[in-house]
Amino acid sequence: xxxxxxxxxxxxxxxxxxxxxxxxxxxxxxxxxxxxxxxxxxxxxxxxxxxxxxxxxxxxxxxxxxxxxxxxxxxxxxxxxxxxxxxxxxxxxxxxxxxxxxxxxxxxxxxxxxxxxxxxxxxxxxxxxxxxxxxxxxxxxxxxxxxxxxxxxxxxxxxxxxxxxxxxxxxxxxxxxxxxxxxxxxxxxxxxxxxxxxxxxxxxxxxxxxxxxxxxxxxxxxxxxxxxxxxxxxxxxxxxxxxxxxxxxxxxxxxxxxxxxxxxxxxxxxxxxxxxxxxxxxxxxxxxxxxxxxxxxxxxxxxxxxxxxxxxxxxxxxxxxxxxxxxxxxxxxxxxxxxxxxxxxxxxxxxxxxxxxxxxxx
Amino acid sequence: xxxxxxxxxxxxxxxxxxxxxxxxxxxxxxxxxxxxxxxxxxxxxxxxxxxxxxxxxxxxxxxxxxxxxxxxxxxxxxxxxxxxxxxxxxxxxxxxxxxxxxxxxxxxxxxxxxxxxxxxxxxxxxxxxxxxxxxxxxxxxxxxxxxxxxxxxxxxxxxxxxxxxxxxxxxxxxxxxxxxxxxxxxxxxxxxxxxxxxxxxxxxxxxxxxxxxxxxxxxxxxxxxxxxxxxxxxxxxxxxxxxxxxxxxxxxxxxxxxxxxxxxxxxxxxxxxxxxxxxxxxxxxxxxxxxxxxxxxxxxxxxxxxxxxxxxxxxxxxxxxxxxxxxxxxxxxxxxxxxxxxxxxxxxxxxxxxxxxxxxxx
Amino acid sequence: xxxxxxxxxxxxxxxxxxxxxxxxxxxxxxxxxxxxxxxxxxxxxxxxxxxxxxxxxxxxxxxxxxxxxxxxxxxxxxxxxxxxxxxxxxxxxxxxxxxxxxxxxxxxxxxxxxxxxxxxxxxxxxxxxxxxxxxxxxxxxxxxxxxxxxxxxxxxxxxxxxxxxxxxxxxxxxxxxxxxxxxxxxxxxxxxxxxxxxxxxxxxxxxxxxxxxxxxxxxxxxxxxxxxxxxxxxxxxxxxxxxxxxxxxxxxxxxxxxxxxxxxxxxxxxxxxxxxxxxxxxxxxxxxxxxxxxxxxxxxxxxxxxxxxxxxxxxxxxxxxxxxxxxxxxxxxxxxxxxxxxxxxxxxxxxxxxxxxxxxxx
Lengths: 362, 362, 362
What we know:
The structure is a homotrimer. The first copy, chain A, is built from five helices and 19 strands. By secondary structure, the first copy, chain A, is α+β, with helices and mostly antiparallel strands. Chain A folds into two domains: 38-123, Rieske Iron-sulfur Protein (3-layer Sandwich); 152-333, Naphthalene 1,2-dioxygenase Alpha Subunit, Chain A, domain 1. In chain A, strands 12-18-17-16-15-14-13 form a seven-stranded antiparallel beta sheet, covered by helices on one side. The first copy, chain A, has a four-stranded antiparallel beta sheet with strand order 6-7-8-9, with no helix packed on it. In chain A, strand 4 (50-56) and strand 5 form a beta hairpin. Chain A is globular and about 75 Å long. Chain A binds chain C through residues 46, 49-51, 67-68, 70-75, 78, 88-92, 104-107, 109, 111-114, 277, and chain C through 11-14, 17, 171, 175, 177-178, 180-182, 193-195, 315-316, 319-320, 323-324, 326-329, 333-340.
């Protein structure tokens, strides 16, 4: 695919979607897992077409190794953690977090060659991030997501394995005009039909859009303590600091708050996508309210609503992926770009640039 | 495969079965669905390796489009019909039956480029027929099947998705000597062991064969009001007007009818096959009696009997397909042609000729 | 793969495991089935990537044919045996054990071309062996396994289909140092950590290893009538006469037998592996005690214990295979050889030599 093909999101431009090949930059932070998923019991997860074992040492330090013993290829994720080592289930070989074999119980010497690739991991916000590319190339921290663990916020989240290429999910969450159609019966926010203008703030893809008085999606009313039918003003702010994560802030202004009630609230959505295998991706969502200590009932109700909506995305994106995979025309069928694809087109530009920097192309 | 390889159905001739590649003519009418299957609720169906959405407008007109929105590839079959338009589930784009986009709700203009392939459809008999090839090449109507909706006949039918190449089904229903073996315990018609002579009537493959007094298969006795053990005379007439459909008429003569009873009856079987995906086909069967108004009980009993028999075909053909697909020898294992393969061999000749006319070959 | 790559099982040597391609010698006896599995009801089984039908004639003679009718490819395993013939389910063609068609019921003549490949089979011990290669090349009998049906022994056995390449199983059963790790909670034999020396006795891979006083694995105590915690002396003897089968003898010496009790026992394990399809193998295990007439209860208890342990192997080997199949690095990831891999390395040497003799290579 030629970079210039996607420079301008012209209305009606027909472009090929080479993006849906399994291409993804390696030299960046991707989310490997929610913090709570990683424990002393090893977790097997495909990340960027690589089998990875994620685990914590006895002292809580997270670690990530290539999930194949160098001896006879047993998955270490079937083994166990012993102090600061992970132990292979097959013949008991032990490895440190750098991937070095520290013990081969069937013999006295420990071969230098018994070495596994290891991956740097970092905890930030509610998630553990992983760098699958060249460790020498690490030139930044994971994006700032400290609000996720800030006690001033209530952070809800969930996870889906989606049988669709990660770009399909990334583009889905950056063009929210689909809410009025795909999520008509769940979000019930039917005023977001005209897309926002997209602009760049450095490397960050951004948009801002204001909406007139209208009831807020019932999905977020409970979290803000608002009645479902009350007209409010809304400002939607979107930001995608990296291909791994984007934010969708719902800034709500209640022009007529009840006595002793706040008039302004934020629901910060976050959409995290990580490539898994061919045509399969991990999708972690977050929904955070700038309201501390949401009750269990409100949290559960909100999560149930969000899940009902995201089930609709998963269903549709998996249908699209299946169609692409099974149709002999596959990706030869040209896509028509609309005005609403401004953010999605920028995703492709960024992706192209990053792949080129890694000496790869689409 | 060389056309000449299949000219003569010589006994014991060894031929390769290149037919089982997914090759099929496009410039002909195939059955897309039973009429009742197509409603305002869109139906997704693979036809000739193409994902197709079948639906009816509010006024009942049937329509067929390529089942991928030109914008971001969502299957229109997940959307809905609104009057004379089908609406994409993702961002609400609307299309007419010619595949033109008539509305893109997220913007004012409607790009000319937003265009989907559409396919001509026709209702004939109990089925909706589709032309997947060049619309300019339409030079005929679907085969005459008006008996299917003639009130003088009682028409029963059913549908199978079969995980086997369509040619395997087509050949199966044209060599009915398998009834005495594969359907020994269901058809119980053990006198059809010698195959009929095959002749051509224009483009139609034909056979006729008379049988001496013998009980009729119990599958068809109820429909004709005959006792199961009564000896009758039988004439089998077969016709295949196109690769899409063949008829198998069971002409029954009761030489000693009960008082006030007819002595002659016809059961017209029809076998409709449509390629779906690689190694997968649609099979629609019909069983029609020239007896008006069969009772519900007789109809259900007859259908149950036919289904029990056709389950045996489906099971065996899927085993054959699985063997072909998994065996490294695949289609390199030569087939031996018998005298009973006369009709099947003509199928291959016709297929070869039609593919050649479309500039394709096996 | 170069033969010299695997000559020396040096500690820490990094080698590619080209063995896990689906390569296997054809000119040797492999086990097709347990004797009891083959009856007059035809059995379909993939052997060396070939669909085979295994059956017995009315007189009990076992036979094996390629499982595809030469006419229209129906699997004969869906048919039935009639005396000395197997009958095709589709059109009733009959074949003798040499694969010659002896009857085609839809016609008078029987074409010479209607011929199916047949495979020599031999019954030896508890199993039926098959020669899938050149019948002219048969130069030996199946390995001597007469103990399996010797009334002086009690022979227990079982079968697994394993979704893993046969070499993974073959190597697993030749490096029993994995017992102390993978089978820690089932075998409970934790003293077998140091591997034995490997030597060749002609073409047979061998090892012998003695163990000090220690309780015997509870899996085998019941079969020998020993209390589970009694310290005994143990000598492990291993032999692999061909790639198809290996033996693992547990020679037990009880230094303080109860009055009127024997002091010496043998449990002869046998591990039989046969390639099935890509990444799939048949695994037959045997456990024989030199104790006649084990009670039903002891036999069942012993089988349950062995099955619990071999379930652990199956689970792990299938995980390894899945990782190899799905990981884009697949077999490019180098294996590190340890001292314990002496027998496994000889397997690769023998395999290389046999493939070379058949004009094939890895």
